[in-house]
Amino acid sequence: MFDASLKQLSVLLAEKKISSTELTSEFLQRIKTYNAEYNAFITVNEALSLAQAQIADQMIASGQGSQLTGIPIAQKDIFCTKGWLTTCGSKMLSNFVSPYDAGVIERFNHVGAVNLGKTNMDEFAMGSSNETSFYGPVKNPWDVSAVPGGSSGGSASAVAARLAPAATGTDTGGSIRQPAALCGISGIKPTYGLVSRYGMIAFASSLDQGGPMAKSAEDLALMLNVMTGFDARDSTSLQRETEDYARDLEQPLSGLRIGLPKEYFAKGMSKDVECAVEAALDEYRKLGAETIEVSLPNSQLSIPVYYVLAPAEASSNLSRFDGVRYGHRAQSYGDLSEMYRKSRAEGFGAEVKRRILIGTYVLSHGYYDAYYIKAQKVRRLIAQDFVDAFKHCDIIMGPTSPTVAFDIGEKSNDPIQMYLSDIYTSAASLAGLPGMSIPVGFGDKNRPVGLHIIGNYFTEAHMLNVAHQYQLATDWHRKIPHQIEI
Amino acid sequence: MQWEIVIGIETHVQLSTQSKIFSGSSTAYGALPNTQANVVDLALPGVLPVLNYGAVERAVKLGLAVGAKINSPSIFARKNYFYPDLPKGYQISQYELPVVEGGGIKIQLGETEKNIRLTRAHLEEDAGKSLHEDFHGMSGIDLNRAGTPLLEIVSEPDMRSSAEAVTYAKTLHSLVRWIGICDGNMQEGSFRCDANVSVRPKGSDTLGTRCEIKNLNSFRFLEKAIEFEARRQIEILEDGGSIRQETRLYDANKDETRAMRSKEDANDYRYFPDPDLLPLEIADSWIAQLKNTLPELPETRRLRYVNDFGLSVYDAAVLTSTREIADYFENVLTLLPDQAKLCANWIMGEISGRLNKEAIDITACPITPTLLAALLLRISDETISGKAAKTVFECMWNGELDRNVDAIIKAKGLKQISDDGAIETLVDEVLFANAQQVADYRGGKQKAFNSLVGQVMKAAKGKANPVQVNAILKNKLDG
Asked: ipTM above 0.85?
C-alpha cells in the first residue's frame, strides 16, 4: 500500500477496500516511525489530517469522490495552510499559523485530498540541498549521508521513503526537478502561470511555480489535474481551458524528435550521470524516437542571470518579514531600526541573508542597469534560444543535475558550487518553460540519476506521455531505496 | 535684487473607488483601526496584488481631461523602504512608465489664463497610518488606509507665486471632482499637495535649488507654506548663503517650514518592475469609451459661457468653479434663455453669498433653479424691480408662501407701477410741487433731474418702473 500508485489508491478508496481515515492513519504512523531518520516533515498534525480524511470518507460514501479524494498528500511548507504552522523552513515564520489557504491547498481541499503534513525545505526555498532549513537538513532515503536536493527536499525525501503517496513542491530554478532527480522520483514544474502562486510564499515571483512530485509520470498527471487552473487572486495566473494531463499518456513515441543541447553534453556533467542519461536516450531510440543535436548558446549564462534576478526579487519579497505584524521579533530592542535589524538578523539564516544582500546590491542606484536590466535582456535571449531549438525538435532532454546527490556538508560552505547544481534546470525557469525530471538509473555510490525533460509552453500532457512511455518500458521509477521497509 | 519664485506641485489625489487598488477591502473613511485590512493589506506571506480597474479608469479620465497621453503599457514598480505602516516593505507605484504623461491645466488669473504643464500622473497605493500617541511608549499601526488608490499628479515648475499655486491647486481640485474621480475631501486627506519651491533672480532662466514641502492639506496652508519658504530662501541667498536641497514640513501652528531630511540622506528606493503585476495594457476602445462618459469639461464650459452667453471671462470662471454651480447656472438658464448675465449675477451674488454664509452646498440650496428662474423672470418682465426682487428672495429663502414668487409679490405689494397714465399723474404732481428744481434743470443743472426722479419714486413708494419714470419726466421737462 505504501508503494501503491495514486490510481491504485483511488480504486481502493472508491471500492471501499480501505477508508481515507485508515489510509491516512497508516501513513501518519509510518511518518511517526521514520521521520526522525529523514527529517522530511516539519509539521505533522494528526487531528487536522484525520478530520480531512473523515470528510473525504463522507464524500466517497455520498458519491462525490474524484481521483484524489481521500488520498493523503504531503504539502511543501511554502504553501499557506489554514490552521497549520507554515514556516517556509525559516525561524522567521517558526510561529506563523496561516489564517488562510493557498490557492493550491484550496484545490486539494476541494477534491477531498488529505493534507498529510508540511514538508521540510530550504529556508524560503533558497538552496539546492535542503541544508539551509531552520528545521535541519533532510536526508536522502537512498543514502542518509547524502542530501536530498532542494529546495523541495522534504517532499522528495518523503515520496522516495514512501512516507507520502505524492507531494507538492515549488520550483524557482530547479527546486522540484533537482531533488526529484537526487531522490529517484518524478517531478514536474509546469509552464509558468499554470499553478496559482496565491498563498505560495514568494521567493522570486517571476520564476516561482508550484508542481507535483510523485513516483511516476502517471501520478504527476493526476496531481497536475488538481493543481493547475486559473486563480483570479494571482495576476500572473493564466486563463486557459482545463485539460486532462493524463489524456495522452498512452500515445506511442514513434517519430518523436528529441533535442539534445550540445552545451549540456559538452562538459560539466559527471561520467556516471552521463552514462545513465545516454542509456535512457538509447531506450527512447528503441521506443521510436530520434535524437537531434540542438543548441542553446546562451544557456551558460543562465546561472549568473538567475543569481541576479532571483535575489533581486527575493530581496524585495522578503521585506515584509520585519517582525511588525507576524513572525519572529527580537526579544529586546532600543528603537525601530534596531527592532528591524535584530529581528531580521535573528530570523533569517545565512543563505537567505546572502541573497537579500545580493538582491539589494543589484537593485541599488548605479548598479541596476549593469545587473538587473542586463540580466533581463539576457533572460530574453535565453528564452529565444528555446524558441529556436523547438523549431527543430519536439522535446529537449539532458541531465537534471550535473552529479548525483552529494554528501551532506560537502558544498554547504561553497555557495558557487551549490548554485551550479541548478545549471541545467534554471534556463527553463528563466524561459517559463515546463521542465520535468524522471529517474533513469544510478550513478556513483548507487545514488539516483534524473533525466531532465524540457517541453515547449503548455505541452505538459505530451511531456508526461514521453515520461510515461519510458516508465512503461523500464522500472527505474519502481526502485525503492534498499533500506526502506514497505 | 528682484526675485522670482518658481513652484511645481505634486498632488496626491485619492481615487473614489469602493475598494482598494490591489485588494478587495473597503476604502470607506473613519472605520475602527484595522477593520478594513484583509490578508493582502496585511501583507501576509504568500498574498498577491490584483489591480482594481476602477482606479485605472479614473486615472485615464484624468488623463483625457488634461489632454495627456495615456501610456499603454504602463508599468507598476516597487518602491522599497522599511516603515511599520508599509506592510510589504515596498509601495507599489509607477516609476519609469506612468499611466498618464504630459497634458496641462489652464488656470484663470483674473482675466488672463495660464497653462500649467503636467509632467505625469501615476497610480500608486497609499500607506497605512502610524499613531504615536496613546500607546504608552509604543506605536499603533492602522492599516485601513494601506492600499487606498492614489493618483499622483505632478506639474512642471510653471507657477510663479503662491497665488498661482493656489489657483492651480483649486482648479485641479475642482477638476478631479468635476470628472468624478475623487471626493475632494481635504480634511480626510483625499487631496494633498506637496510644493516644490525655489527662487531665482528675476530674468534668470536657470532653476534655483528647490525644497519640497510635504503634505499640505489645505489651500491656505499651501499658500502660507510657499510664502514662508520663498521668504526663507530669499533671505538665505541675500545673506550670501546657498539653499540645501531638502524635504521640509510645514508647521501650521508656527507658520513656518522645517527641514525633514536632506537629499544626502534620501533613501535608495531600489525601484524595479513588480513581477506580481503584468504591464498595464489599456485598449484604445476602452479609452474611447471612457472619453464618451466624460462630462463637458470646465474649460469647455467656460469658453461656451463667454462665446455663447457673452459672459465675462471672470464670470465664466466663477460659474465653472464646480460642476454643481455650473449645472445650477445652466438649469436656471434653460428656463430663462436670454438672461445669462442676470442669472450669473444672481448666482454669483445673492445665491453664493447666502450659501457661503450658511455653509450650504448649492445642491442643497432651498431656492432651486426653477424657483430662481421664476424670480428672475419677474425682474426681466419688469413686474418687480431688482431691489424688490431681493425682498422676494429673502422671503423665498425663508420658505414663506411655499416659495411662490407671484404670491409673495402680491402679499408684499411689490408689483412695479408700469402704467404710463399712473406714472404721468405722479410726475405731474411732483413737477407742480417742485417749481424751483424744474427751473434749475431748465437752467442747465443736470443734478436737479436726478432729484426729481427721486421725488417721483418716493411718491410711488419705490414701485414705479424707473425706466418709465425717467422717460416721462424727461419728456415733460424737455418738451
From this structure: yes
